[in-house]
Amino acid sequence: MRQTGVCLSSCPSGYYGTRSPDINKCTKCKADCDACFNRNFCTKCKAGFYLHMGKCLDVCPDGFEPIGQHMECTAIVHCEVGEWSQWSPCSKRGKTCGFKRGEESRTRETLRIPSASRDTCPATKEKRKCVVQRRQCRKGERKGGGERKRRPNKENKEENRESRQEERDTDNREESENKNKTEHRRRKAQNKQRISTAGSTV
């Protein structure tokens, strides 16, 4: 290669090589280009410019963003998640029996991870409270039908105490609701009777 009368094994930075039957020479890249493959295709831009498809730009075009220290424009990637799964069976402490109020959950997969500068993906797991008809657990019954392991008496007693307390709380709430309904009906009947008596007097 020849550059201003000097023969080189390769062209210096900011130049690209051109070959012809008569002479091989180094040609300068465009002013905003620090390294190039040819006159119209840059491989590295000078400071303050962003490389995009062989060109040096002041800013990345729509749908692209600069990445890392290479000052290159890359396509913006938004998060993509799949569909929600079905809600899991209502359970409590890993069991699906022996309780009235429990919890159920559902999940979904992340199909595409977003760009580093984009917002994070939405939640991929949800939980909610659930209510089921209470039923007694059969011997050895646990979530998934596995064999129930024996646990220390202290833990069993504590769980039984919590279960009884929950039953009492539920019964108290139901009893209170029934009393309120009965009282409401009684007052409604009394008001109706007063109105009827007042009409008869007039």
TrEMBL record:
GO terms for cellular component: extracellular region. Keywords: Disulfide bond, Glycoprotein, Heparin-binding, Secreted, Sensory transduction, Signal, Wnt signaling pathway. Its main location: secreted. Residues 141-202 are annotated as: Disordered. One of its GO terms (molecular function) is heparin binding. Residues 182-191 have a biased composition (Basic residues). InterPro entries: Furin_repeat, Growth_fac_rcpt_cys_sf, R-spondin, Rspo_Fu-CRD_dom, TSP1_rpt, TSP1_rpt_sf. The keyword Transport does not apply. Residues 141-181 have a biased composition (Basic and acidic residues). Gene3D superfamilies: Hormone Receptor, Insulin-like Growth Factor Receptor 1, Chain A, domain 2, Thrombospondin type-1 (TSP1) repeat. Residues 192-202 have a biased composition (Polar residues). Residues 1-73 form the R-spondin Fu-CRD domain. It is found in: Secreted. GO terms for biological process: Wnt signaling pathway. It holds the Pfam family Furin-like_2. SMART domains: FU, TSP1. Belongs to the R-spondin family. This is R-spondin-3. It comes from Acipenser ruthenus (Sterlet sturgeon).
